Amino acid sequence: MICENIGINGNHLTFAGMDTVALAEKHGTPLYLFDEDRVRHNCRVYLEAMKKHFGESSFPCYASKAASFKRIYEIMKDEGMGIDLVSPGEIYTAMKADFTMEKSLFHGNNKTDADVSYAMECGVGYFVADSIYELDAIARCKKDSTKQKVILRLTPGIDPHTYDAVATGKVDSKFGTAIETGQAEELIKKALSNESIEIVGYHCHVGSQVFDSEGDVYLQAAKIMLGFGAKMQKEYGVAFKVLNLGGGFGVRYTDNDPYLDVDATIGKLGAFIKEECAQLGIDVPQIIMEPGRSIVADAGMTLYSVGTIKEITGYKNYVSIDGGMTDNPRYALYGSKYTVLLANRMDEECDFVADVAGRCCESGDIIQPDVKMPKPVRGDIVAVCTTGAYNFSMASNYNRIPRPPVVMISKGKDSVAVKRETYEDLVKNDI
Ligand SMILES: *Cc1c(COP(=O)(O)O)cnc(C)c1O
Fold first, then answer.
1. Are residues 302 and 239 part of one domain?
2. Is residue 230 in some structural domain?
3. d(Cα 407, Cα 33) in Å, to the nearest integer?
4. N or C: which end of the chain has fewer CB within 10 A?
5. Measuring CA to CA, how many Å separate 277 from each of 148, 225, 235, 282?
6. 207 Cβ closer than 6 Å to some ligand 1 atom
7. Which residues of the chain have pLDDT under 70?
8. What strands, in cross-sheet order, belong to the sheet with 18-19?
């Protein structure tokens, strides 16, 4: 199986030690499952590896856009993780979970003055500033004489060879300020006269679903960022306290995806950073990383019920399920790969091939093409694995379809963390 929290009992698929068919019956479909113990395990892998290889002051920030709801922030608080937030809505949700905001970073390439004010009111620890517009906005919105800690988001000019839509560290990215063009240095010169901020360091995020095999992109990024930070410290006296290397570690969606060893990758990066800093004659800065996908992806699974089975003689087959791009738009957006299983017939031969299609009025509403499975019948349960990241958080109400609930599983017990939306919820803002 692609992850150790997935198993088989008789002819039923199990997830986090529980029978998925029974869970589908109890909570209805479509249904998001979340394995809380797996989330905690993934956090601890980062917490331990970063302390060990980067030093005591370093810490991981969970990039909460991957999956954002109250229970997740409570878990992150409990585990001692920092968090990334990208909108006032995420800030609000984290506040509702009593998250300690000093350990939060506020991201985004276009923060409005209202966003900036709200984030400061809530006591967000660090702003990850994308451009001069944001530094000006911070100065405009600052109400007291303290300085807002700012990390500057830069583009080191690295292409991690992932999907274009998720490669974010290239010079021509919509995110960050480019080092290569001299604009990052210009930004710092301007920022020096801004009394409302303290630049504590630099941030880059090379992309997502990146595997170490792809040319050590993290080492390349670290080298450029450290060189730049050392130069700014020397030339302009900007103390280089924090280096944030972003997120992006890849996860296994199918058996063809490699395993990424988080501890070994961070170990290699830690040794490299120490060596580079020694050469540059600077102290090793506090290192922050921002894993999103690799914290929650394999902690998620989605269950659906099979509705119609359409065999177009001589062409292809479709198996339609009771969810779709409204709860998982990733195939429609990026052509993402998934492992799809027939959860109630795990002991049968997979001799039928079909596109698993959603129920939306869009031909592109496909969860996964060319899935091999036993020939399904109406009412069978379809499981899509590794859906913990960028599924619930990307869900929509297209076609006025209510979002599925999130059911958390911990130590063999299931509990609802987010309720299923109702039709009443759908019209609550309609006047
Ligand atoms: C999306 C994002 C992350 C998380 O990326 P993953 O691939 O989910 O680990 C981290 N940092 C920033 C700035 C991001 O935009």
1. no
2. yes
3. 5
4. C
5. 26, 11, 17, 5
6. no
7. 160-169, 213-215
8. 6-9, 12-15, 18-19
